[in-house]
Q: What sequence folds into this?
């Protein structure tokens, strides 16, 4: 398929990027919200993990700025972590009807990630010296 070979920029259709970002926002809000009553420290750590790790680690060609280059599979795992956090935390943070809507969002976001995840899976990340 055109555009899926390693190198170059990752294919990231606007709909996929929008749904992924919306799901990330839900994870960033729902996870600390769900954890706060159990442990303030865990709530704060969840924010650092869910926002900090994807900011720090990225695959060249997937973002404009790469701080720590990693293989594409690492980025896929970080996205899956955020999707799982949104899906699970929403049940503990909000009413069931909202959690169901979050699950629909997560599924839609995952479905639209196909081209990007295929590109990331083929991308070895940083060149080795």
A:
């Amino acid at each position: 398929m055109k555009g899926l070979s390693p190198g170059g920029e990752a294919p990231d259709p606007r709909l996929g990027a929008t749904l992924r970002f919306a799901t990330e926002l839900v994870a960033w809000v729902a996870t600390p919200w769900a954890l706060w009553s159990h442990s303030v420290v865990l709530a704060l750590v969840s924010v650092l993990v869910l926002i900090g790790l994807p900011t720090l680690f990225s695959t060249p060609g997937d973002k404009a700025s790469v701080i720590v280059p990693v293989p594409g599979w690492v980025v896929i795992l970080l996205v899956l972590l955020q999707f799982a956090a949104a899906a699970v935390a929403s049940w503990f943070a909000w009413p069931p009807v909202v959690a169901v809507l979050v699950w629909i969002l997560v599924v839609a976001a995952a479905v639209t990630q196909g081209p990007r995840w295929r590109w990331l899976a083929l991308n070895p990340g940083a060149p080795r010296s």
Remarks:
- The radius of gyration is 15 Å.
- The chain is about 70% helix and 5% strand.
- Helices lie at 14-36, 40-56, 72-93, 96-112, 114-122.
- The longest helix spans residues 14-36.
